[in-house]
Design goal:
The protein is α+β, with helices and mostly antiparallel strands. It has a single domain, classed as Thrombin, subunit H, CATH 2.40.10. It contains 6 helices and 15 strands. The strands form 3 sheets. Strands 1-2-3-8-7-6 form a 6-stranded antiparallel beta barrel. It has a 6-stranded antiparallel beta barrel with strand order 10-11-12-15-14-13. It starts with a helix and ends with a helix.
Length: about 325
């Protein structure tokens, strides 16, 4: 009986060995995992996910925004330049277009008028308690209605110590379903608060633009806020859209099917707007300003050339 049991054990061990030999263990890059699976303290959560998010007030609209840059002004080292990323639809009512006579082109041209918006930043004590808040005027310096994104420049020389860190462009490809995320915003114009969830869809195309879907709860007012990767703290998107279904005469919002602008689009927008300094330490605000002015001048001259050509073809 003992000999028979020994034979059975031997066969079982041989079977395990053959399975391990035929199906070798998958090697995992432990360094890569350790970089993704970081453990953060409650204090880190506050600094990464809560403090960079602000409340925005524009014409008849309240929404959210995220401080993504607050660095020393290279021309005035005692002062700081601070920029906030938000959705276009949060600040769109502060932009109007009117016709004005242009003496160079000798014709009416459309001119945009951008009103200042308010950015409210919160100060905390004991990590979690709002002690006070300050509202600052901010200029709309760039926007794209199709991307539904906008950049605001805060009219204050002070430093804002907590900024969101945009995911490195070469790391976007590593995003996967089930990765844990944190959404922070000002739902229903409330002070900023966070919700936790997971990435549930990586590439949702809506109106020819790429979004990510997450199941972290979001609602009206979250627009323009922040989507963070929980393990790294990286800023990976801007909450922008909700799912809604009509039931009879009512309309229900599906808060666990929210869509954020994909990080690829954040880089695309910043590059199109010549704002690479936001993520590239080798660039600066004044270089971006010169590039934007040059593009505006080139566009104006192209419009003038087109107008002259049209006049030559149709003199009347």
């Amino acid at each position: 009986m003992t000999r028979k049991l020994n034979k059975i054990r031997l066969c079982f061990l041989l079977l395990i060995a053959s399975v391990l030999f035929c199906f070798p263990m998958v090697r995992v890059n432990s360094l890569e995992i350790s970089q993704q699976k970081q453990t953060h303290s409650i204090e880190d959560y506050h600094k990464f996910f809560l403090y960079p998010v602000v409340r925005i007030f524009s014409e008849r609209v309240a929404g959210s925004g995220t401080i993504i840059y607050s660095e020393k002004d290279i021309r005035n080292p005692e002062e700081y330049l601070t920029f906030v990323l938000t959705n276009y639809h949060v600040i769109g009512n502060s932009i109007t277009v009117s016709k004005e006579w242009n003496s160079i082109l000798r014709r009416d041209i459309k001119k945009e008028i951008k009103e200042k918006v308010k950015v409210e930043n919160f100060q905390y004590i004991n990590l979690s308690l709002i002690d006070s808040s300050n509202r600052y005027n901010a200029d709309i310096i760039a926007y794209d209605q199709n991307h539904d994104l906008a950049i605001l420049m805060v009219n204050s020389p002070r430093q804002f110590p907590y900024t969101a860190k945009l995911i490195p462009e070469d790391k976007i490809k590593d995003l996967r379903l089930f990765m844990e995320v944190v959404i922070t915003g000002c739902s229903l114009a409330h002070e900023p608060f966070s919700n936790f969830g997971q990435i549930t869809y990586l590439s949702e195309i809506i109106e020819r633009k790429k979004y990510m879907m997450v199941n972290a709860g979001m609602y009206f007012g979250n627009s323009g806020g922040a989507l963070f990767l929980k393990d790294s703290g990286w800023f990976i998107g801007v909450p922008s859209r909700l799912t809604g279904i009509q039931l009879g005469f009512g309309f229900d919002m599906i808060t666990f099917m929210g869509f954020s602008a994909h990080p690829e689009r954040l880089y695309e927008f910043l590059k199109e707007q010549e704002l690479q300094f936001i993520y590239d330490p080798n660039d600066d605000y004044y270089g971006a300003l010169e590039r934007r002015k040059r593009r505006e001048k080139e566009a104006l001259m192209a419009l003038k050339a087109e107008f002259i050509k049209d006049k030559e073809i149709n003199p009347n």
